[in-house]
Amino acid sequence: MTNMLKTYIKLLLLLLFFKSQSQGISERKLKDSIQTLRALVQDEEIEISDRIVSAEKVSKFAKQLDLDSLLLINNRNLSYLYYTKGYSDKYTQINFDNLNLAKKLSDTSGLATAYFNLGGIYEFIKFKNDSAYYYYRKALKQYDYLNDIPNKVNSLIAIADIQDTDKDYIGSEENAVLAINFLNILPKNEGNLDALWSLNNLLGVTSQNLNRFEKALSYHDIAQDIANKMDDGDYNETITINNKASVYRKLKNYTKALELYRSLINKRDVYEPYDKTFYPLIIDNLAYTKVLSGSKDFESISKMLYEAYDISKSLNDDITKLAVTIDLSKYYKSRELKDSTLKYAEKAYKLSKQISSNDILLESMIILSEFKPEAEAKRYLYEHIRLTDSLLKVERNVGNKFARIELETDQIEAENEQISKENFYLLLLSGILLLSGILVYTIISQRSKNKELKLVQEQQNANEEIYNLMLGQQDKVEEARAQEKIRVSKDLHDGILGRLFGVRLSLDSLNFSDGKEAMMNRSNYIDQLKTIEDDIRKISHEMNADFVSGSGFIDIVSELVENQTKAYGFTYDFNYTDDFSWEFIPNKTKINIYRILQESMQNIYKHAEAKHVKIDILREKDQIIIYIVDDGKGFDTTKSKKGIGLKNMNSRVKDVKGEILFFSELEKGTKVQVKIPYIT
Questions:
Q1: CB-based contacts of 370: which residues, under 8 Å, 6+ apart?
Q2: CATH code of the domain occupying 553-677
Q3: What distance in Å separates the CA atoms of residue 214 and residue 593, rounded to the nearest whole number?
Q4: CA–CA dist 353, 356 (Å, integer)
Q5: pLDDT, tens digit (0-9, with 9 covering 90-100), for 375-397
Q6: How many CA atoms lie within 13 A of 671 on its CB side?
Q7: What predicted TM-score, i.e. pTM, was given to this entire model?
């Protein structure tokens, strides 16, 4: 019975061993697949749809292996790809998944990102400002804990914008000012300047809504000054000019307002690439400002209003179309043309209800009440009163609403914290009981297991001994093989080559003693012996040499240049110096040089329309110097530094503590100079 039990235990151990080996191999394969797929996810040259497929597979494998941290990192990349591709449902779901995963891992950064993304989802996709405000506030708290000032600013901007939309102007103003205070301690780079402009522009709009017109102009002046300091702030400036004109119109300074609106007509090429609805809005504002100023240039006013109406209609832009429609009604009202006034007032009334524009709905009802028969007029007036009362209640409660959201959020967090504590104590107690049970079981069963454990230990020691013997035998075989290699090499060189050389000399001395035919035959033999001699010498050298596998870095770069230029259809010159050894240069530096060249040639193909590229890799003192010159159309180096390609090149050069310079003129090509420290 005892022997049968031992046999059973041995079989069980073998089964467990093979199962664990199989699981280990499977896990290794999955991890290798994950590494390969993650590289594909990060490759920006691959189509986004294919990157999404790779990222989804990474998430699937990470779940199988219970790699929650990897899953969260990959899901954040996947979230960005869904957003870029416009998959709103998948983008929403994965951010909720990331939120739960970040809570599980207590990952503050992951929580902050998920909360902020969900805020954007509820603001721009679901159009639920209450929920958007809730998630932005949660994100702000996480960023505050991380002391992540740039993202605190982004959260405050989002919160202030929602408050302005919901007419909580005081709350919006407070958060915008707080955000500006944070921005003032950050470097004045392009991104921070753009945020400063947005906040001052928002404060200008908020001040106008609070009837603080001089204050509004002051903020817009600051915003315009910031736009002028930006490398690419022309579009920002046009928005500011339009907003300033609106303030001047409120102040009834129609001359200044008209001047500003007219200046924007000449800047159509600046804002139209960003927003095609901006031009019809400007000409509508210009036309209606003329109406307010008492202008009698009816032909010009009418032409601009109908042009704005037609453009907004062709763009399916209901918001601008509504603004133009109500302005047309007010224009005809000023001319006392009843039928046209009613026609456009009715259109404005219907359209404002469709898109929930309460301000214009109220205006249209007032006009309709003035021109409709008495019964209908009363109906419009009653509707106007009901809507006004409703909006007043909403406005009175809006500030309290946001305060209530914050209070409820704090209460929920406090309750969650209490529940977490209670769960912790319950889990601790359960753990203690479980540990006690395991300890009792271990003590009871330990004696009966000692013999089996001793047997397993002895078997393990035997296996280790066998493995060490195999390693030793392998070393001896390798050593004998090397010695045999050297011996054969010496025999070939010292023995056979010596004898063959002697035969060749003997035959050579007999060349002139016989006839012509014999001489030719002997000469043929001598040539054959020479061939044998060369072959044996070659074999001898190959057997006694120590080769290093792998291709040199310059060979890899040469292949890259050749393949890329061939694919892109331009000729090239590639020159490099050979006065230093690439094997002493860190792999990180070589990889970044390779990527810089790759990115540069891709930029040339996409943007330069070049026919020829010249690449030089040189060494000057303690620096590696790279020149990349093309004969393309060039670009304005003061304005064209926002492309992803140029940013990637700058980032890679910075990563190896180098510097990059761009020299370019329009229609005269581009020269890129990269300097990287030569570290041995």
A1: 333, 377
A2: 3.30.565.10
A3: 55
A4: 5
A5: 888 898 888 888 888 877 766 66
A6: 7
A7: 0.56
